[in-house]
Amino acid sequence: MATPGAVRSASENEAWWKSAVVYQIYPRSFADSDNDGIGDLPGIVDRLDYLQELGIDVIWLSPVYRSPQQDNGYDVSDYQDVDPLFGTLEDLDRLIAAVHVRGMRLIMDLVVNHTSDQHPWFLASRASREAPTSDWYFWRDARPGTVPGEPGSEPNNWGASFGGSAWMWVPERGQYYLHLFDPSQPDLNWDNPDTREAIFTMMNWWLDRGIDGFRMDVINFISKDPEMPDAPLNRDGYGDGMAYFSYGPQIHAYLAEMKRRVFDPRPDTYLTVGEMPGVTPEQAREFTHREHGQLAMVFQYEHVFLDADGDKWTQRRMNINDLRDTLAKWQTALGDSGWNSLYWNNHDQPRVVSRYGNDTTYWRESATALATVLHLHRGTPYVYQGEEIGMTNAPFAALDDFRDIESLDYYAKAVCTHHEDPADVLDILRRRSRDNSRTPMQWSAVPGAGFTTGSPWIGVNPNHNWLNVAAQRGTPGSIFEYYRALIALRHRLPVVVDGNFVAVHTGRDQIYAFRRHLGDTTLTVHANLSDLPVSFDRDDLTARDLVLTNYTLSRSGPGRLEPWEVRVHVR
Ligand code: NOJ
Description:
By secondary structure, this protein is α/β, with parallel strands linked by helices. It has helices spanning 41-46, 48-54, 89-101, 120-127, 193-208, 242-245, 251-263, 281-287, 320-334, 352-355, 363-375, 405-417, 422-432, 469-472, 479-492, 494-498, and strands at residues 22-25, 58-61, 65-66, 78-82, 105-110, 139-140, 167-170, 175-178, 213-216, 271-275, 297-299, 308-309, 311-315, 341-342, 380-384, 500-504, 511-518, 521-528, 534-535, 546-549, 560-561, 566-570. The strands form six sheets. Strands 11-10-9-5-2-1-15-14 form an eight-stranded parallel beta sheet. A five-stranded antiparallel beta sheet has the order 16-17-18-22-20. Strands 6-8-7 form a three-stranded antiparallel beta sheet, with no helix packed on it. Residues 71, 74, 111, 181, 217-218, 275, 347-348 line the site of 1-deoxynojirimycin.
């Protein structure tokens, strides 16, 4: 394995990922080399110099495996091949080599809570109870006393994440299978040791190919309560089964087995990050514990749910106190023994500058302020493609503009089944749809945004005419250059990586302030997370100690911050 340049690592066995910055690529929307409208692996290779200039250490590649693409690759039909949409296995080998040559690393998405319903394991399993993979999925009989296959005869009342029942009837088997997401994504039965064995073998095959770790899709869902009881009802009339599968009885055992079988026997250290909806800070600390944890870090959801009211399709105003308290709570709870992942955006979240920032009047200021507080927390920061230039939500005009299976399912259920007003449903999709983050990367102002010269699979945001890489790269004061400075700060100052975290109370709601301490060094962040200027009791901070700010010509005195102004002091 190549020794990374920027990552401080004395030995391969150190937790090198603690000083790393990760960049997530959603391949379909990043760079399209053959101009068929869909991004691909050679397109990524062409853009590696850009990522190196940004200063990132690791690329997380969203799924490029063979897939029917019902959920844009999160429905895998062959874990050991590349979908022709994105290129070939040889293209991926070339990408891995090109990443390593530049001193960077690459982790793959691992989608093993479920497969595609077109995976050979599932095709065989659904065809016969005698098949070797018969028991690799969750098959259950109809509820006793009901007519199998009729509504209401599902084994329990759980709803699926993408709407409807979590159970699908298969006449050939005379049974239902469980799918916590779309019916095309049947859940794998991890309780069967053969299933686990096949997954671990596949993971080892990838590590042997030279990748540097995995981002593990909804990995906390792999152990289900074997009783699978009915659950309290959600707004949509289905049971919320989270309590029975988000922290199941075997979750620690299965992840520990994975660690033993896949990672422990190897001399190198890998980045493992588990996506864990619903995880609590206490659970996260255990999963990532320095001594007995099973993963390097997890993705929690609490801070990206603060503008939702109960479920993801109801919007409320995010309260700044909640945001501050939530961020600080996770910092403190994981403390010295666990490790946080730090993120605002990914392919499932609307763009943060449009959600928690101000994407009009204070677009640049709020994008850089939010970046600052995130990157200067304790943990490993993740940048989602386009975040580094302040990409915003998209102005979707009509239902036809959306592509995401979750959004389209929601619209169909809300409008056709629950007879909600189509205009209201479109409005909430515009704010909350995952497609907001999936519009093509904005490289330049030309038609197609430099992403493609063909017809893009999802519309390019019209604001690419001014919001694009070409306009910002090398431009003093741009969001891109600010991200570079922020990433460089992490690489330069050990206090950013290893310093402990202490929240600071300024007595002003809209200010988020904290300190990081390491030895004799103290780093202090003051961030005004609002559209209004604010004064506060002056700290003993001096201009001499200022290492970073997003206002080059601040009119403010020492005890005052302009809208979305941040100041970082080190002494
Ligand atoms: C989480 C992924 O991030 C999301 O995109 C996907 O739809 C679900 N898991 C199901 O795999």
